[in-house]
Amino acid sequence: AVIVPLDNTVVEKGFPMAIRALKGECNGVTVPWIRPGSSIGVLILSDEDNCGSHTGENCAGEEGETAQQMLDFLVGPTGIRAPGEARVCGIIDGNDTCGASAFPAPKYKFAIDASLGTWGRICDANYTATLRAISNNVSAIVKREFTLEHLPDAGSLNVLVDGTVPAGGYTVDGKIVTLTAAED
After folding, report:
1. Across-strand partners of 178?
2. Alpha-carbon distance 70 to 155, whole Å?
3. Do residues 67 and 50 touch, judged by C-beta distance below 8 A?
4. Is the peptide bond before 16 cis (omega within 30 degrees of 0)?
5. Helix segments in 37-153, DSSP class H
6. CB neighbour list of residue 104: distance below 8 Å, 6 or more residues apart
7. Which pLDDT belongs to residue 162?
8. pLDDT averaged over 10-residue windows placed end to end, the chain, 184 residues
9. Within 10 Å of residue 100's Cβ, how many Cβ atoms?
């Protein structure tokens, strides 16, 4: 879906737009949509750094202007999730190796590294390995343990996710139900 050379006439505002999306802001309307207690994965796909390919001058004063603002919004004491419950991942030029195809993205790379996310190169011909790595990375923070309000009667509990038994199955220990991760 990414065609090289990329169109560098548009200023990409990955962090400001991610923050707006996570708040549920769209076209002047705010509709919160994130479930309480859910894990969050933010995927940045960009051929330049946050707010422009050079100094990032193109979103001065906006929430999300810096990597630290993105991280503070996402995790920590004032963030929407506790540390370890959210990751930033990306398909970017993280090490200035794409040449004329893309600009280096040190702000995105900083947020990815600080959140323990992962990334791949936007100039790669195939994203299969990158998307698999991102999927595995985000899977590590997905909540799989749930506490039931009451102890179920023996043999009476059926767990369904989207109408089917989870691919990896599940275990029940008292009031704790744990989904088992499915193997690739």
Report:
1. 145, 171
2. 46
3. yes
4. no
5. 67-74, 106-114, 128-139
6. 49, 93, 94, 95, 96
7. 83
8. 60 92 93 90 93 71 92 91 94 87 90 96 94 94 88 87 86 90 66
9. 10
